[in-house]
Amino acid sequence: MNGKKYVPTWYFPLLLYCSLHLIPAAAGNATDDEFIYTGFADKELTRFGNARIMPEGFLMLTNGKSQRGHAFHPLPMMFRRTSATATTNGTENAKAVRSFSSTFVFAIVTTTTTDDTQQQGGQGIVLVVVPKANLSDFNTSGSASDHMFSVELDTNIDSGDSNNNHVGINIDGESLGEKKAGYYEDTNGQFCGLSLVSGNVMRVWVDYNGNTTQVNVTLAPVPMNKPAKPLLSARHDLSSVIVGDSYIGFSSSTDTLSTVHYVLGWSFGLDMPAPAIDVAKLPKLPTRSGSQSKTMVIALPIVSVVLVIFIVICVILVRKRYNYVELREDWEVEFGPHRIPYKDLCQATQRFKNTNLLGVGGFGTVYKGVLPKSHVEVAVKKVSHQSRQGMKEFIAEVVSIGRLRHRNIVQLLGYCRLKDELLLVYDYMPNGSLDKYLYGHDNKPVLSWAQRFLIIKGIASGLYYLHEEWEQVVVHRDIKASNVLLDNEMNARIGDFGLAKLYNHGTELQTTIIAGTLGYLAPEVTRTGKASPLTDVFSFGAFLLEVTTGRKPVEQGTEGDLNMLVDVIFEHLARDSLMDVVDARLQGEFNADEANLALKLGLLCSHPLPNLRPSMRQVMQYLDGQSSLPEIMPSHTSFSMLSTAQSQGYDSYVISKTLSASMGSVGQLSSFSSGR
Ligand SMILES: Nc1ncnc2c1ncn2[C@@H]1O[C@H](COP(=O)(O)OP(=O)(O)OP(=O)(O)O)[C@@H](O)[C@H]1O
Ligand SMILES: *[C@@H]1O[C@H](CO)[C@@H](O)[C@H](O)[C@H]1NC(C)=O
Ligand SMILES: *[C@@H]1O[C@H](CO)[C@@H](O)[C@H](O)[C@H]1NC(C)=O
Ligand SMILES: *[C@@H]1O[C@H](CO)[C@@H](O)[C@H](O)[C@H]1NC(C)=O
Ligand SMILES: *[C@@H]1O[C@H](CO)[C@@H](O)[C@H](O)[C@H]1NC(C)=O
Ligand SMILES: *[C@@H]1O[C@H](CO)[C@@H](O)[C@H](O)[C@H]1NC(C)=O
Ligand SMILES: *[C@@H]1O[C@H](CO)[C@@H](O)[C@H](O)[C@H]1NC(C)=O
Ligand SMILES: [Mg+2]
């Protein structure tokens, strides 16, 4: 800023133009002190040269090479107070230029890109205040007689300008100050440079205070608010410059580079701030080839951020879904035919819909389903498991169990492994589990004695098959009424294999999750955690007594004490009133010999000492009448110990814990039971 006088090159074409074209008389009086253009559509501007108002609503000062464009508000503004409005010191105020403020939104777009910084788009845009819209009167030498005040957005190197991207204040061609284009951040006062020819929409504020004679010029990108600190500030009394009503407008020119100069909105106020421009309502610039790469520069980071967020969400979802992803490992290949795809099971059970729920047991939930391809009705048991330890052995056992074939055994069709869940697929038993008949749930009819005795024989036969007839000894571990299922012929079948094994596998006794059900669990199991065929016999004994009497093996007494069914039957045996204990729902219609046999055999199987229990082979023989039951004497020493021994068999903690779980399935009996 050397204050040297110079003649802006755009003066010449301006004058040339004006001398060639008659400018309509700058008709009209300054009738108002403010105006606002939110876009220029349908607006009357006094235009010269290439200046056009486009249908989109923006003012286009130039659009190509070697062009000039000028546009003025059609009415002159009363920059000087008339004596009539002067109040305090009329003579002085009449001379003073009133405070004024103007703001405009613009964009400068170079349509050709070049690395030659010396040849940027043109002269830029100049906001001018001149006495006449007829510019032919201007003195080309830039003398004081021009009476021109201007704020330039210069994109070209002129004499006296330090660079080609600056903002300057000029009086009659003399620079009052100039600054590299940019703005000061409100937060930290840091300077942020802007490129005028970037094609970005920017905004300029020009403020003059008539009292202090200070001129401020502020620049900011749209839609940023006006920064508090002006880019440029100068002190100059405009009273000598603006001598009367004057016109305000824009001037622009290009030379070697094809440049488009746009003004999108403009407002002005005298003795008041320029009316606020609603940036959102301004016309939109047409998309340009140059702007597309610009758009990409802005859009690309946004798009990539959105993409990254999307991917992160996907990963989270997939990881969540991973829990439902089927697990398959190499060792499972040999079990291939028994592995049922999760997809099929989902389809079969309608995504484990509640309406397909058959029941909830100790280890999981059971759903009814129809396999998609074979249309076989199945029961799918969903078991949650935490550790994969022993899983291989367990699956091997499941698969070997799948090879069991017996008319009193629920066929295990296959399995499916998820991360935290194991799905076991069994044949569907249309008549449900026996417990529902015994206790009259689901409006099931009371089973006749003949049916009950058949069920007893069937289960005995199934257990005998498991223990002795098959190629290896299979211990069921969880014989009880709810695991006895009835097929469509009311034929009893043993269900739920192997799970007890899964839960007992390889754990220390102290923390063992003892699978089984209170009253069905042989006392030695709670002590040692070891199951054997004879523990199944114990459970079978409890089952026998339950089916015959219609009472649960352990019932909670009125004072929270435990009534062992064995004790009750034992008392009746001592009083020779055994038939009184037979299920009252049979209304006396039963075969007394068979009932007598069932009760005594039940007691025999419930012997606290495993070695004194019969084997399943013997049980079969007793039931078939092939051999007669040994006499059970009420005074028999080992039986007199029965109830105490059995009570002692459970540790008190286990019993209280289990009974609070409603006398049902024990499932997990653990000092550290984690609940289920
Ligand atoms: N194969 C099947 N066909 C038809 N219904 C079944 C089948 N398996 C189980 N159910 C039903 O689902 C219910 C829940 O079975 P689940 O085995 O989970 O519990 P539970 O037998 O009561 O206890 P536990 O977990 O100790 O075996 C059963 O009571 C039975 O009514
Ligand atoms: C513009 O100014 C020139 C010279 O000052 C004058 O000859 C011309 O008539 C003016 N035009 C109008 C429209 O006032
Ligand atoms: C403009 O002002 C002049 C005198 O100052 C007056 O003669 C003329 O009628 C006014 N025109 C309008 C449009 O107000
Ligand atoms: C106006 O102000 C000037 C100086 O401030 C003073 O000399 C002059 O007398 C004042 N005029 C009136 C009319 O108050
Ligand atoms: C233009 O300015 C020059 C000097 O700067 C002066 O000699 C000349 O008279 C002026 N012309 C007009 C028309 O004001
Ligand atoms: C110019 O900017 C300065 C500093 O922010 C401020 O104090 C002053 O009031 C401004 N003047 C005008 C006319 O806006
Ligand atoms: C200028 O001074 C007058 C009188 O003191 C005051 O009313 C007015 O608001 C001031 N204008 C500005 C822009 O500060
Ligand atoms: Mg079960």
What does this entry look like structurally?
With 676 residues, the chain is α+β, with helices and mostly antiparallel strands. Strands 1, 3, 4, 6, 13, 14, 15 and 17 form an 8-stranded antiparallel sheet that branches. Strands 2-5-16-7-8-9-10 form a 7-stranded antiparallel sheet, with helices on one face. A 5-stranded antiparallel sheet has the order 18-19-20-22-21, with helices on both faces. One 2-acetamido-2-deoxy-beta-D-glucopyranose binds next to loops.
Q: What would you say about this model in short?
A:
This is non-specific serine/threonine protein kinase. This protein is of the alpha+beta class. The protein folds into three domains: 11-82 and 108-288, Jelly Rolls; 326-428, 2-Layer Sandwich (Phosphorylase Kinase, domain 1); 429-666, Transferase(Phosphotransferase), domain 1 (Orthogonal Bundle), CATH 1.10.510.
Give the CATH topology of the largest domain: Jelly Rolls
Please bin the fraction of helical residues: 25-40%
Q: What molecules are bound to this protein?
A: adenosine-5'-triphosphate, 2-acetamido-2-deoxy-beta-D-glucopyranose, magnesium ion
Shape type: rod-shaped
* CATH class category name of the largest domain: Mainly Beta
End-to-end distance: 84 Å
Number of helices: 16
The structure class reads alpha+beta
Task: State mean pLDDT (0 to 100 scale).
Answer: 79
Radius of gyration: 50 Å
Level-2 CATH architecture of the largest domain = Sandwich
Quaternary structure type: single chain
In total, the number of strands is 26
What about the largest sheet? Answer: 8 strands, antiparallel
* Percentage of residues in DSSP E strands: 15-25%
Low-confidence stretches: 1-30, 503-515, 647-676
Give the domain tally.
Answer: 3
Organism: Leersia perrieri
EC number: 2.7.11.1
Keywords: ATP-binding, Cell membrane, Glycoprotein, Kinase, Lectin, Membrane, Nucleotide-binding, Receptor, Serine/threonine-protein kinase, Signal, Transferase, Transmembrane, Transmembrane helix
Enzyme class: transferase
